[in-house]
Amino acid sequence: MSFFNTISRSMTRGQRAPKRATTPTPTTPSPSSMAPPSPVPPSPSPPIPKPLYLSSPFVEAALVKGNFKTIVMLPKYVDIMEWVAMNIFDFYTNLNEFYGVVTECCTQQSCLTMSAGPTLSYTWINQERKSVHLPAPTYIDYVMTWIQNLLNDEATFPTKSGHDFPQSFPSTVKHVYRQLLRVFAHIYHAHFHQILHLRSEPHFNSLFAHFLAFGREYELLDMKDVRGSSASPVGVGQLWEKWRDMGILEG
């Protein structure tokens, strides 16, 4: 169902070579007979260890068995705008609670950037419209405060009878979805071991799988945001592939 159809080069000077004898002697090999030195092969880079959330049995841990598509379908007689708004509220509330559990471990010192993979850190657009790197707790605080203000805004998320959703609602919730995905991605990348310590991985995996399935069903999620680029992949992008192969998510 389409939700949006509803509305140097460097230079160095080497040392001078020693002067060669004019006539080659048995102890002075001629230049033509000298073999070039064998090139030294570069040391192989150490393999990047697989993240815990992609390892068995953690990747299979879930509260819901079967395909998540069955729980994201629009119920009969329910307005699609209301359905999307309600689920956005639930995803925000549950994710905020999970982040509250690990917030003591997500500090200005431990999470200097909003990392979501070995080579990926998200940037924030400041008031001067410039991309800046922020510590993860600062970034997440900005995101959660911004979303909370939207949810409290009757003009954006109307709760009273007779108030319609604005025409900008689809693009607004898509932006919200992108930011929530980044919070999920950071927690998986930087704090999944704390989730494991609390034995909460089935709950967190189920919440994220539900989030992904809902986002794809209503076109709130771009796969480029889930997977990232080849140079800067999103860590949780591989979770999508794993869960798709397991039949949890649709392709």
UniProtKB/TrEMBL annotation:
Keyword Plastid: no
UniProt xrefs under InterPro entries: MOB_kinase_act_fam (IPR005301), MOB_kinase_act_sf (IPR036703)
Gene3D superfamilies for the chain: MOB kinase activator
Stretches with biased composition (Pro residues): 26-46
Signal peptide: none
Keyword NADP tagged: no
Segments of this protein annotated with the region Disordered: 1-46
Binding site for Zn(2+): 106, 111, 186, 191
Keywords: Metal-binding, Zinc
Comp. bias intervals (Polar residues): 1-13
This protein's name: Maintenance of ploidy protein mob2
Species, as recorded: Hypholoma sublateritium (strain FD-334 SS-4)
UniProt lineage: Eukaryota, Fungi, Dikarya, Basidiomycota, Agaricomycotina
